[in-house]
User: Fold this.
Amino acid sequence: MQPNHLPALGPRYWCALCLASIFGANMGDLFARNLGLGHVSGLPFLAAALAIVIVAERFDRLQHQSYYWLAIIIVRTAATNFADFAAGDLKLPRIWVMAALTVLLVAALWLSWQFAWQRLAGKTDNLLRVDLGYWVSMFIAGTLGTVIGDFCSHNMHLDDAGAAILLSPIVAALFLIGRQGPLRLLPFYWLTVIAIRAAGTAIGDLVSGRNMLGLPLSTAITGILFVVLLLILRGPVRSEQSMVVPS
Assistant:
């Protein structure tokens, strides 16, 4: 993606990613259940939607972040369904799925690290270098986070509320530790992304449960909150020159 379409790493970015994780978890379940597409049949549609976003982004020279956040939601939705397919439909042990996904994520980051992350020379913040390797890593991290969230809810018998209570402080601790700089480091960034996905899965399943909002209403509310957050907390305006990421 072009630098003028990418968000800077900061409180706005991380708050939006947290809401996107909850919204995407609900979207994945809505896709599979309410739309009747199942965990696999909907994946080609999501892949096509992501391809359209990526292609359209290449021709747009305006400065905004719509493409990035649309892609994040699409990838999060697909990751939810793929995780449910692997650990649910195929009934693979979640602990083995988590181990395999961890290895895949490390391999993906190792192969694409020089493209996935670069520091802007002379700047106090970072911008993401978003390419194919980044989206592959984001999909794997999203799937891993989903399986971790489900593992805490089901295998550890904490239910969704207990898993949310367990995982949310972990995310808060990562933010607290990383706010002075580590969040801009590649390993810490992806560790935080996984933790956000895990907590988002538990919270998304909790608020979409029958005893709370229900899936359609929960999806609508979390989606609205996500959009409102992006509109209210606008990122700093940067010139094209300051957005260039050195190669």
Summary: The first strand starts at residue 117 and ends at 118. Residues 205 and 211 are 11 Å apart (CA to CA).
